[in-house]
Structures are given as structure tokens and as C-alpha cells.
Specification:
By secondary structure, this protein is mainly beta. 0% of the residues lie in helices and 55% in strands. It is built from no helices and 13 strands. Strand 5 and strand 6 form a beta hairpin. The radius of gyration is 14 Å and the shape is globular. The relative contact order is 0.30.
Length: 130
């Protein structure tokens, strides 16, 4: 069964950094697909954080994380990372990796919609304390 699995979550202090990883399994590879990171905090809607196409590397970032988060493809290892710095309390959420989606355009702006992705991981919790 094709799956993705996230790891790397934890509890950090405000201002610290953390890196999440996403690894495909069951014969799934990221080559030729769009992969992304999403998050959902209790009582809030799921948010698209960052997406990247494979292999050309076109990216999308939510305004809330631009300049602080970086989505990274690790081509030889066929894995995906989310490098997060200057974490804030409002970044506290369950973080999910997903694949099978795409990056679209609305005018000149790129968008990445969670509903376009069809293989999801179980999530990894990130908690930022002050």
C-alpha cells in the first residue's frame, strides 16, 4: 500500500528551529508528482503550508510561513523535508505530508489546495511554547 510517513515533530521554544521529514513507502515515489506540507490546529481549518513540484522544484508557500519555512526535496533519497525556523506559538499544529496534488495559478499567484492531494500521512505534532 502506498503511504507517506512524517517524522521530526516535537516541543520547542518560541524562536527555535525544527525540521520535519516525509518518507514514501509501499512502492510510492515522489518523482514526477507534487508534494506538500499541511497543518491543522485544534478548532481550526487545515492550512496549506508549502508545496513543491518534482522534479522542477516549483514552490508555493503560505503567507504565514514565508521566510521562515523551507520545503526541500532530497532527490537521491526520495524524501521531503520541511525546515522551520523562528517558530511561533501559532505554528503549533499537527503537520501532515501529502502527495499526488498540484500547484495551480490564480492570476499570477500560485496556489496549492489540500483537496487535490490523495496520499496522506498520519501527521506529526509540533508544539511551540513561549
Amino acid at each position: 500500500q502506498e503511504q507517506v510517513a512524517e517524522s521530526g515533530g516535537g516541543v520547542v521554544q518560541s524562536g527555535e528551529s525544527l525540521s520535519l521529514s516525509c518518507i514514501p513507502s509501499g512502492g510510492l515515489t515522489f518523482g514526477g508528482s507534487t508534494v506538500g506540507w499541511f497543518r491543522q490546529a485544534p478548532g481550526k481549518e487545515r492550512e496549506e503550508i508549502a508545496c513543491i513540484t518534482w522534479p522542477d522544484g516549483l514552490t508555493y508557500y503560505a503567507e504565514s510561513v514565508k521566510g521562515r519555512f523551507t520545503i526541500v526535496r532530497n532527490n537521491p533519497q526520495n524524501t521531503l523535508s520541511l525546515q522551520m525556523k523562528d517558530l511561533k506559538r501559532e505554528d503549533t499544529a499537527m503537520y501532515y505530508c501529502a502527495t499526488g496534488g498540484r500547484i495551480d495559478y490564480v492570476g499570477a499567484s500560485r496556489i496549492c489546495r489540500a483537496e487535490d492531494f490523495d496520499v496522506w500521512g498520519q501527521g506529526t505534532q509540533v508544539t511551540v511554547s513561549s
